[in-house]
Structures are given as structure tokens and as C-alpha cells.
Amino acid sequence: MTMPVLTPGQPFASASPALLVENRLAPGSYRFELVVVDDSDNASVPAQLLVTVLNPPPPPPPPNQPPPPPPPGGGRFGIDKTVVLDPNLLNRLRTRTNG
């Protein structure tokens, strides 16, 4: 079964009461209008629906990565900007400096 492709500004007629469309719409606003015609060619009042397609959210940031290994051969020392504070160590330092 082939799926219909809806094209903005182009009418689409179908004898089936169900419609499955799988084409993707670019971000923006789209107005859909439905008119039903019976066996005697009587047309219904158009029913309109405004659909807004949003931009997809940005991808999440990459997970935290470990720091890269040092260069081969021992090269220059780098500066590690990671600071780890151990509350127990801070208490011991305060005790020693206070007497």
C-alpha cells in the first residue's frame, strides 16, 4: 500500500474515510482543511486545523569524558584544572593551623 504525500497548496481527494500520511513537514505552520462530499455531491462546510511543526531540540551534550592521557614520551606537564575538595582534609588542615 502506498502512502499519499501531501503537498502544501495542492488538494488531495480520497474515497477512504481514513488517511495515513508519513511525509515529514519542515518546521513552520500549516493549515489543513477537510471538506467531505457525499454521494449526492453535497459538500460540507470546510473544517480547518492549524498545525505548527517545531524545530527539533538540540542534541544533548556528550557525557563527561575522562581527561586525555599524557603525551607519549613524557612531554611537558599539563595543568589539571580539576579540583577535588575533601571535607575531612579541610578539617585537619584547619586544626593544624589553629594550634
Task: Outline the structure in words.
- Helix content is 11%, strand content 14%.
- It has a domain at 1-12 and 25-55.
- A two-stranded antiparallel sheet has the order 1-2.
- The protein is rod-shaped, with a radius of gyration of 33 Å.
- The protein contains 1 helix and 2 strands; from the N terminus they run E-E-H.
- It has one helix at residues 87-97, and strands at 28-34, 47-53.
- The protein has 99 residues and is of the alpha+beta class.
- The N and C termini lie far apart (86 Å).
Note the overall shape.
rod-shaped
Cα distance, first to last residue? Answer: 86 Å
Instruction: Record the strand order, biggest sheet.
Output: 1-2
Give the structural class: alpha+beta
Query: In angstroms, what is the radius of gyration?
Result: 33 Å
Please bin the fraction of helical residues.
10-25%
Mean pLDDT: 74
Would you list the SSEs in sequence order as H and E?
EEH
In terms of per-residue confidence, which ranges show pLDDT below 50 for 5 or more consecutive residues?
94-99
Provide the β-strand percentage band. Answer: 5-15%
Largest sheet data: 2 strands, antiparallel
How many helical stretches?
Answer: 1
**Count of extended strands:** 2
